[in-house]
Design a protein that fits this description.
Length: 269
């Protein structure tokens, strides 16, 4: 029996410190909801989770790009719907101007409306979306992949350069023959417009499908990341209860170990 070195107390104190450390770690996991509070909790898992986090952020960025491109295409179609109404009316005016019962004054009124609508179409051709021309005709490269691989080249729509549209400004319906020529040109413009709107529809379908695919990828990546980072509350609460009991037991046993040397006083009495 010794007094200076209490091996039982030293051992109990060490075990109590370890249990207290584990209890504090369990408490921090439960309070943060994260399985990895510091790198030593899971060094490899933390590295993988960091890469997952970065990829998820890139997926979100790509999804934003696709969403903006979809809005761009929808804006294009919104303007082209108005162009369609204008062309429909212009074709109607071209036919009305070929009525033999109409006088030159009537044809002049038809021509005024016809030229105003043609000017309206020209004005639409100059519209832009956040500084990017809606109808400049240039293809746009949409970054749809989180690693910027295999971008989607969205074919452009041109209202300012195609003869089907630009020739409308030089037409008139002041005579029956000019109205006949105008009708042919307007019909060609309507055919071109139908093709352009079909192309926009195809672009929107492609972008919508891409955005949905990015959403599925983001969900799966987030699920994989969650399995690495997020704490299982049921499992961790069980560990917390275990460590809490060990701390309490260790505290009680340390108190007992500290009183053990007192029995040596009986030998000295």
């Amino acid at each position: 029996m010794v007094i200076n070195t209490n091996i039982s107390a030293l051992s109990s104190a060490r075990l109590l410190a370890e249990s207290s450390q584990r209890l504090a770690k369990s408490l921090s996991k439960l309070s943060s909801g994260s399985k990895i509070v510091s790198p030593e909790d899971d060094a490899a898992g933390m590295a993988v989770a960091m890469r997952f986090d970065a990829q998820i952020n890139r997926i979100n960025a790509a999804s934003n790009n696709v969403g903006n491109a979809t809005s761009f295409s929808q804006t294009q179609d919104g303007f082209l719907q108005k162009v369609s109404k204008s062309l429909d009316r212009m074709s109607e005016l071209s036919l009305l101007a070929q009525d033999v019962t109409k006088q030159s004054q009537d044809l002049s009124l038809y021509d005024k409306e016809f030229s105003t609508l043609a000017s309206y179409i020209t004005d639409i051709s100059q519209k832009d979306f956040n500084g990017v021309s809606l109808f400049g005709g240039a293809a746009l490269s949409i970054t749809t992949d989180p690693d910027a691989v295999g971008n989607f080249s969205m074919q452009g729509i041109s209202l300012a350069s195609l003869a089907s549209y630009t020739s409308l400004n030089s037409l008139s319906v002041t005579t029956s023959s000019s109205a006949s020529t105008a009708l042919t040109a307007v019909k060609n413009a309507i055919s071109q417009l139908a093709s352009d709107r079909s192309l926009i529809g195809a672009n929107i379908v492609r972008l919508t499908n891409t955005n949905e695919q990015l959403g599925v990828l983001r969900d799966n990546m987030s699920a994989a990341n969650s399995r690495i980072k997020d704490v299982d509350v049921a499992e961790e609460s069980t560990q917390f209860a275990r460590f809490n009991i060990l701390v309490q037991a260790g505290t009680a046993m340390l108190a007992q170990a500290n009183t053990t040397p007192q029995s040596a006083l009986r030998l000295l009495g």
